[in-house]
């Protein structure tokens, strides 16, 4: 990939609440979903945030044995899928798991996958997808790893292999 910069709204270096184990969290800049009461409105603009060097991010993640995985959140990481797939591939090769939060449902992703460059590639390096828009009417603070009850925690490897949706109970 020639352009090695990714537009991020921010990063959490060590998180225990965005998937299992200690994780690096990358917040993508840019989102089209407009969920009511979105908790990260500053991530919506596609020109905000900061351009960051992907190779530097990767080296920092893979050189830290304490970090068990990386989580892409947003914004919506699917809007920069090619770039996130580059990071996902490299960190997964080093044994780190990849979780993605997206406002698209799994069904929407599959139906639009041919029109969206990079989505298939990104899913191929993803372990778990937390899907769907945040629904303020279904908000439940007791839920683990998701904001509203409509969102699903999907085992992507199993779901892609079987063409059925396998959710994970956390
Ligand atoms: S998908 Fe996430 S960042 Fe985008 S509007 Fe919904 S809650 Fe906000």
Automatic annotation (TrEMBL):
Leader sequence segment: none
Domain Radical SAM core: 17-170
Cofactor: [4Fe-4S] cluster
Gene: nrdG
NCBIfam families per the UniProt record, alphabetical: NrdG
Keywords, ordered alphabetically: 4Fe-4S, Iron, Iron-sulfur, Metal-binding, Oxidoreductase, S-adenosyl-L-methionine
Role played: Activation of anaerobic ribonucleoside-triphosphate reductase under anaerobic conditions by generation of an organic free radical, using S-adenosylmethionine and reduced flavodoxin as cosubstrates to produce 5'-deoxy-adenosine.
Keyword Flavoprotein: no
Keyword Iron in annotation: yes
Catalytic activity: glycyl-[protein] + reduced [flavodoxin] + S-adenosyl-L-methionine = glycin-2-yl radical-[protein] + semiquinone [flavodoxin] + 5'-deoxyadenosine + L-methionine + H(+)
Name of the molecule in the record: Anaerobic ribonucleoside-triphosphate reductase-activating protein
Regions that span the bilayer: none
EC number: 1.97.1.-
